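#lab-general

N.A. 3:47 PM
ok so I finally got the sequence cleaned up, no stray characters, all 361 residues accounted for. can someone with queue access submit it? mine expired

B.Y. 3:52 PM
send it over

N.A. 3:53 PM
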Amino acid sequence: NPNPNPNPNPNPNPNPNPNPAAMAAFGEKDGFVPGQRVQDADGYRGTVRYYGPVATSKNANANWVGVEWDDATRGKHDGSVTTKDGEVVRYFTVPEGKKASFLKPGKVDAGASFMEALGERYVGMDAPLLAPNNVFEGMYANTNKEGGQKPIEFVGELNIRAHQQLAVLHKCTLRAQGICRTHPRGGGGVNGAAAAEEECKHYEEVDLQGNLFSSWDEVATLCDALPQLRRLHLNANLLGDPAAAALPALGASAFANLGVLVLNGCGVERWASVAALAAAAPGLRELYLAGNAFGATMGAAADLAGENLEVLDLSECGVADWAALGGVARLPRLRVLTLNRNPIRDALNGGGGADADAKDA
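B.Y. 4:20 PM
back already:
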């Protein structure tokens, strides 16, 4: 790690690489671009904020990955470094309470593709057996205090595998696999990905909770690759608010045909983003948005385009006033609205005046 800046509030020099587009093009060959979600060998996750040379590096030509960590106890930097001459060079800025690190590219996992992970999890019938002769090699269970052991058996492995073939499944679960994109970087022939691409087109449900997706464009690519997709779980992927440019691609993919969309804890901060996503998926029946801090942006007239929406979860979204739910109340088919752990003011006190006690809904 380059030497951290000891001064938490320096008067730094401007970012030496202020052009995000140039930085993205520069880092893409190594798999690192600003805004990308990554993790280290210990499973700590963060967001790439910079890729390039760092002034305090012993090798001036070496590239470093500037990562803002999710865990505030991780990292020693604030996005800047201090040279031996006392010059502060800032590469990016982290929010108050956050920390960052400059890491060598080899120390950062840039993530895998959905197709790679699918091909590795759901292997073919001809793949090597985990338990040849129905026994896990080199694995034993203790049978008594004297150290007696018995081998661990696994009976019926091929029968189980037959029910997990890509061609016969209609849904898959790939939670916390470090997936950040749909297709492998550089082609589809990696780790069974090519076969997976052909055999998963009929999938109706995909659970990708806790992965590294950070781009709605990539979500559109995923939905485009799964034309029969109807239920998509993306909770705990820090996607943030979608850019306007990403919405047409979403609407032109299987996203438009989704019936169930789970976006709990995805970093969505604007109610306008929720409305835009709902408009891109007019067939939605269930929408889960717990843990996204957009409550303060909800207005009394904020209608949601969801004529088919029946279930809506707005738990822990910072909704503080019943009037903010006016648009939600106008949904014609809504039958389940969940508002757990929101500081909504008591409706009996006139909808939440200044003296009303804040209570969790």
